[in-house]
Amino acid sequence: MVAAVTYTAAALAGVLAALVLDVAVLRTRVVLGRVFWCSYPIVVAFQLLSNGILTGRGVVLYNPSAIMGVRLAYAPVEDLLFGFALVLATLALWVFFRPRAASPPRPGPSEPREPRP
Question: What pTM does this model have?
Answer without folding.
Answer: 0.78
